[in-house]
Design goal:
Blueprint (H helix, E strand, L loop, with lengths): L8 H10 L4 E7 L5 E7 L7 H4 L1 E4 L13 E6 L5 E2 L7 E9 L11 H15 L4 E13 L1 E6 L4 E6 L35 H13 L4 E6 L6 E6 L2 E2 H21 L3 E3 L13 E9 L2 E2 L11 H21 L5 H4 L9 E5 L5 E4 L12 E3 L8 H17 L17 H7 L2 E2 L4 H10 L2 H4 L6 H21 L3 H7 L3
Parallel strand pairs: 1-6, 16-17
Antiparallel strand pairs: 1-2, 3-4, 4-6, 5-6, 7-11, 7-12, 7-13, 7-14, 8-9, 10-11, 14-15, 14-18, 16-19, 17-18
Helix pairs in contact: 3-5, 3-8, 4-5, 5-8, 6-8, 6-10, 10-12
C-alpha cells in the first residue's frame, strides 16, 4: 500500500500498522458541533468493527437522547482514518457515524447524518451532484483567559502578548510592536508574532490531508488569525473543519497558548467570522457562472435568492451563539445587510471578482461564524439554495453603494432587510421558517425543535437571567 490514506477497513489496519499505531481514537460530533471521543486498543478490533460499530452511552451527549434510551452505536468510517498528532502513543483517529443499536438506523440527531443526507438530496433533485464549501474561519490566539459566573461574581479577562492594551506593560523589556485595534491585517514580523505558530498548525493540517491555501494575521489586535482551506465537497469539509479546530487548539496548547473561535471576545475591535464560499456543480461543470450580474447564471442568482430569503433561519445554525450577534452589528465590515453585491463587504452575500474563470464563480455568504457546527450550518445553506433554485427566488437589486451613506428610506425602498439582532430573533425565525429544511428528510422536525429548545433553555434563558457586569457601571448608583 502507498502512503495514501485508507479507503477500506483492510487498508485502515494496514495504514495503522505502517505508522505503528497501538490505539484507535473514535471521534464523533455532538449536536452543537464539539468532538467527543473514546479510545480502544487497536488489537481488540477487526474489520467487522466498521460494520457493527462500538457501543457507548449517549445520554450525556449534548442534544441527544435521554437516559431511558441511552445506548448508541458509533460506526467508524474507514476513509476518515488519520494518525492523530496529539497523543504520546501512536494513535489512529477515525470519525464515526451514529446508529441506533436496535433498529440499526442512522440516528437523526447525529449532525454528520444531516450532512450526508443533504448531499444525497442534492443529487436526487437533479439540480447538481456536488456542493462545494470553502470556509474562511478566523480565531484568536491568547496567552491567558480567565472567567467566572456564579451568584456573586461575573467577569472575564483575556490577555495577549500582542494586545494593544499592553504597550505600557512592564515586560522586561517591553519591545512594542503590538498591533493596534483594527490594525492587525497583514503586518510582517515583529508585529505578527504568530507566523511560526500558524505555520505549525498548517503543517499538522497538511499531514492529515487538508489542503491549505494561505494563513495570515487578521484585522484585530491580540493575535487574531486566519487559515484558509481549499474548497471541498460539503461532507468532506465538515469533517475537515472538525480537524481544523482540533489542530488549532492543540498546537496552541503545545506552546502555552489558547485558541478561541468565539466570534466577539474583544470589545470595539473586529470579531471572528467564517465567510463561507459555496458553489454547485454537475458532471464536473460549474453552475453559478453565466452572463448576469457579476457574471452569475440564473441558477446562481436563484441560489442567492434562497440564501437571502431564509438567512434569518439559517443563522440559528450558522451564527449559533449569543456572542455571534456582538459581531453582526453595523460597522467593522459586518455583513448585516441581506443583499448581494460584487464587492460590498457589508452585504451578506458577496460575489468574488478575483477571477474570470467559470470554475471560480461562487457565492460568499459572509454571516456565519466559526462557532457553528458545519454539519448543520452548511446543509442549511444548501437547502436554502435548493429552495431558491426550485422556486426561482429573486435575490433583489444588488447592493453596490456604501450602505452607511444610505438613508433608512432608501434601504426600505430597495427592500433591504438586515440580519437578526440577537440569537433569540434567529431562533424565532427558525421556528417560523424551517419547512425548506425538511425537504428530503434532510433535517427532521425533531432535530430542529431540539435545537430551538436547547438554544432557548440552555443559552438564551441563562444569559437573560444573569446581571451583566456593565450593568453595575450603568446602574449601581442609580
Amino acid at each position: 500500500m502507498s502512503d495514501a490514506f485508507p479507503t477500506t477497513p483492510a487498508e485502515f489496519f494496514t495504514y495503522a500498522k505502517k505508522h505503528g499505531a497501538e490505539m484507535l481514537d473514535l471521534k464523533f460530533v455532538d449536536l452543537l458541533g464539539t468532538w467527543q471521543h473514546c479510545s480502544y486498543p487497536l488489537d481488540t478490533l477487526d474489520e467487522g468493527t466498521f460494520e457493527e460499530g462500538l457501543g457507548f452511552d449517549g445520554s450525556s451527549i449534548r442534544g441527544w437522547k435521554g437516559i431511558h434510551e441511552s445506548d448508541m452505536m458509533a460506526v467508524p468510517v474507514a476513509t476518515t482514518g488519520r494518525i492523530d498528532p496529539f497523543f504520546a502513543k501512536p494513535t489512529i483517529s477515525v470519525i464515526a457515524n451514529i446508529v441506533d443499536p436496535v433498529t440499526r438506523q442512522d440516528f437523526t440527531r447525529d449532525p454528520r447524518h444531516v450532512a450526508r443526507k443533504a448531499e444525497a438530496y442534492l443529487k436526487e433533485t437533479g439540480i447538481a451532484d456536488t456542493c462545494y464549501i470553502g470556509p474562511e474561519p478566523e480565531f484568536f490566539i491568547f496567552d491567558e483567559v480567565r472567567y467566572e459566573q456564579n451568584q456573586h461574581t461575573g467577569f472575564y479577562q483575556i490577555d495577549s502578548v500582542e494586545g494593544a492594551w499592553n504597550t505600557a506593560r512592564i515586560e522586561e523589556p517591553n519591545l512594542g510592536y503590538k498591533p493596534s485595534f483594527k490594525g492587525g491585517y497583514f503586518p510582517v514580523s515583529p508585529s505578527d508574532t504568530y507566523h511560526d505558530l500558524r505555520g505549525e498548525m498548517v503543517e499538522e493540517m497538511r499531514r492529515i490531508g487538508i489542503v491549505v491555501e494561505a494563513h495570515h494575521h487578521e484585522v484585530a489586535t491580540a493575535g487574531q488569525s486566519e487559515i484558509d482551506m481549499q474548497f471541498q465537497s460539503l461532507l468532506t469539509m465538515a469533517d475537515q473543519f472538525m480537524w481544523y479546530k482540533y489542530i488549532c487548539k492543540n498546537v496552541a496548547r503545545r506552546h502555552g497558548k489558547t485558541v478561541t473561535f468565539m466570534p466577539k471576545p474583544i470589545f470595539e475591535d473586529n470579531g471572528s467570522g467564517m465567510h463561507t464560499h459555496t458553489s454547485l456543480w454537475k458532471g464536473g461543470t460549474p453552475l453559478f457562472a453565466g452572463n448576469g450580474y457579476a457574471d452569475l447564471s440564473d441558477i446562481g442568482r436563484w441560489a442567492a435568492g434562497g440564501l437571502l430569503r431564509h438567512a434569518p433561519a439559517i443563522l440559528a445554525f450558522a451564527a449559533p451563539t449569543t456572542n455571534s450577534y456582538r459581531r453582526l452589528v453595523p460597522g467593522f465590515e459586518a455583513p448585516v445587510n441581506l443583499a448581494m453585491s460584487a464587492r460590498n463587504r457589508s452585504a451578506s452575500i458577496r460575489i468574488p471578482m478575483y477571477s474570470k474563470s467559470p470554475k471560480a464563480k461562487r457565492l460568499e455568504f459572509r454571516c456565519p461564524d466559526p462557532t457553528c457546527n458545519g454539519y448543520l450550518a452548511w446543509p442549511a445553506m444548501l437547502m436554502a439554495m435548493i429552495d431558491g433554485i426550485q422556486n426561482r427566488l429573486d435575490p433583489g437589486a444588488p447592493l453596490d453603494r456604501d450602505i452607511y451613506e444610505m438613508t433608512g428610506a432608501e434601504m426600505k425602498e430597495m427592500g433591504i432587510r438586515t440580519t437578526p439582532g440577537s440569537l433569540g430573533e434567529a431562533v424565532d425565525a427558525l421556528e417560523r421558517d424551517h419547512a425548506f429544511l425538511l425537504d428530503g428528510d434532510v433535517f427532521t422536525e425533531d432535530l430542529v425543535q431540539t435545537w430551538i429548545d436547547w438554544k432557548r433553555s440552555r443559552e438564551l434563558d441563562p444569559i437573560r437571567l444573569r446581571p451583566h457586569p456593565y450593568e453595575f457601571q450603568l446602574y449601581y448608583d442609580s
